[in-house]
């Protein structure tokens, strides 16, 4: 079907001959995860369009997801081989025409959601000493320059190859090249893109490399470089330090800096535009951004208080991988369901991103772990973010926005239903500017994972 699928099939054939080798089977893990999710997005009356006086429709949907994961061990020998496989299945439970919007589940022709969707992915892997390589279509990177999204019924995954090496003490090296993405609301793969790009503009080459160096047991330094061909180049610098005050008391500092610029067709009028998150751009359509953030967290027993600030430069918005605009073949075709992406900043919050040009965001979060009062598995948090100096897309004037998020999570710790978890989340967003999008959002998620081996 695809060249990568053929290569993977060959690799699996080799592995099948060695499956009896010690380690491959003994270290294998097989698990089935279930997720039930209710999603309610209330677009407020204040959003009515001034030209049509039409209120954006609310979205209320419920879905059920199943994820079967097989993770093998490695065969014996100087180079060990293994395989990981993942099958996912999503089911539409509720949320008919009028309440369905692209992104939560795949679109049906009648304006509702499809009844179900599924996909399968697998990775061949090899290990030499302290270096591992993975190649396939079930990759889920969690790095400063790319964070795989798992915020809906099914997770987002990627196709390509990655390498992680820990040959040098205290140093982790990551590198890779990705070619396609599998969206959280899709059975198909798409090319890679950015938010606001043309519907048929994508790339099949996202390259990255980076270092995590533990300078001391308490201080970690990071540098990463990534390049989405014909869209952007991005440098990242990070530093994390944890100062232990006492056995149950600490102070954490987390500093992050991104420098992003245009690449190839994005900067030479080739039409590979960046939408600048709906905000201002000095050179419309081009990537041109510097973003820094600083976060400080004080922890005492079960209490945790985090305060921070983030600044997005005036010349353009922050950029990250997002396939939301990618479409099927045909001028009037529907979305591929590939939208929805995460990025490595605290302001990637429940509803908004606070990533438009000029945004100065001050934020804070208070969390409490109820294990300290005899209720293990119960946690709660509340966060507040306020962004100011956001430049209007027209370049005339600025505006502000804020968001308040609250969540409570509980995981059963023992008994027949041990591991069953529930999460209730509620967010409120209010914005100004040229295209306000006030929203109240509620999510109820129930998770359970059963381990077969």
Please describe the topology of this protein.
Elements: H1 3-18, E1 29-43, E2 59-71, E3 79-94, E4 116-128, E5 131-139, E6 142-143, E7 146-147, E8 157-165, E9 171-182, E10 189-190, E11 206-216, E12 219-228, E13 232-246, E14 249-262, E15 288-300, E16 303-312, E17 360-369, E18 378-391, E19 398-411, E20 421-431, E21 439-451
Antiparallel strand pairs: 1-2, 1-21, 2-3, 3-4, 4-5, 5-8, 6-7, 8-9, 9-10, 9-11, 11-12, 12-13, 13-14, 14-15, 15-16, 16-17, 17-18, 18-19, 19-20, 20-21
Signal peptide: 1-21
Family: Belongs to the outer membrane porin (Opr) (TC 1.B.25) family.
Pfam families: OprD
**What fold name goes in the CATH topology slot?**
Porin
In terms of DSSP E residues, the strand content is over 45%
Q: What's the Cα radius of gyration?
A: 23 Å
Architecture in CATH?
A: Beta Barrel
Structural class: mainly beta
Could you explain how this protein is built, in words?
This protein is mainly β and 453 residues long. The protein has a single domain, classed as Beta Barrel (Porin). 4% of the residues lie in helices and 50% in strands. The protein is built from 1 helix and 21 strands. Strand 6 and strand 7 form a beta hairpin. The chain is globular and about 65 Å long. The protein starts with a helix and ends with a strand. Pfam families: OprD. Keywords: Signal, Transport.
């Amino acid at each position: 079907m695809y060249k990568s699928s053929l290569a993977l099939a060959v690799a699996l054939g080799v592995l099948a001959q060695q499956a009896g080798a010690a380690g491959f089977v003994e270290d294998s893990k097989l698990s089935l995860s279930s997720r039930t999710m209710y999603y309610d997005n209330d677009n407020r009356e204040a959003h009515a369009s001034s030209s049509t006086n039409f209120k954006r429709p609310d979205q209320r949907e419920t879905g059920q997801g199943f994820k079967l994961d097989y993770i093998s061990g490695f065969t014996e020998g100087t180079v060990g081989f293994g395989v990981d496989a993942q099958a996912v299945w999503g089911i539409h439970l509720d949320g008919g025409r009028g309440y369905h919007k692209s992104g939560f589940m795949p679109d049906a022709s009648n304006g509702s959601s499809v009844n179900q969707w599924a996909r399968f992915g697998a990775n061949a892997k090899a290990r030499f000493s302290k270096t591992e390589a993975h190649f396939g279509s079930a990759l889920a990177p969690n790095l400063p320059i790319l964070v795989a999204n798992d915020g809906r019924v099914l997770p987002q995954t990627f196709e390509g190859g990655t390498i992680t090496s820990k040959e040098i003490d205290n140093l982790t090296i990551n590198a890779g090249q990705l070619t396609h993405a599998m969206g959280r609301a899709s059975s198909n793969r798409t090319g890679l893109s950015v938010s606001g790009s043309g519907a048929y503009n994508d790339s099949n080459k996202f390259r990255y490399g980076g270092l995590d160096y533990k300078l001391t047991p308490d201080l970690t330094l990071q540098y990463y470089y990534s390049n989405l061909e014909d869209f952007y180049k991005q440098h990242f610098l990070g530093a994390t330090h944890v100062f232990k005050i006492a056995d149950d008391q600490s102070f954490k500092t987390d500093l992050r800096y991104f420098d992003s610029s245009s690449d190839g067709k994005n900067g030479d009028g080739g039409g590979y535009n960046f939408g600048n998150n709906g905000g201002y751009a000095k050179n419309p359509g081009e990537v041109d951004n510097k973003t820094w953030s600083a976060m400080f967290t004080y922890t005492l027993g079960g209490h945790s208080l985090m305060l921070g600030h983030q600044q997005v430069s005036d010349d353009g918005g922050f950029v990250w991988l997002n396939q939301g605009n990618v479409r099927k073949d045909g001028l009037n075709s529907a979305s591929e369901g590939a939208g929805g992406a995460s990025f490595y900043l605290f302001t990637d919050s429940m509803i908004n991103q606070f990533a438009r040009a000029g945004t100065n965001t001050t934020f804070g979060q208070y969390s409490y772990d109820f294990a300290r009062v005899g209720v293990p598995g119960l946690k709660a948090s509340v966060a507040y973010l306020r962004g100011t100096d956001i430049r209007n897309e027209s370049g005339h004037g600025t505006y502000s926005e804020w968001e308040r998020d609250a969540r409570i999570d509980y995981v059963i710790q023992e008994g027949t239903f041990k591991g069953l978890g529930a999460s209730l989340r509620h967010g409120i967003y209010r914005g100004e500017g040229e295209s306000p999008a006030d929203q109240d959002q509620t999510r109820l998620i129930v998770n359970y994972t059963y381990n077969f081996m």
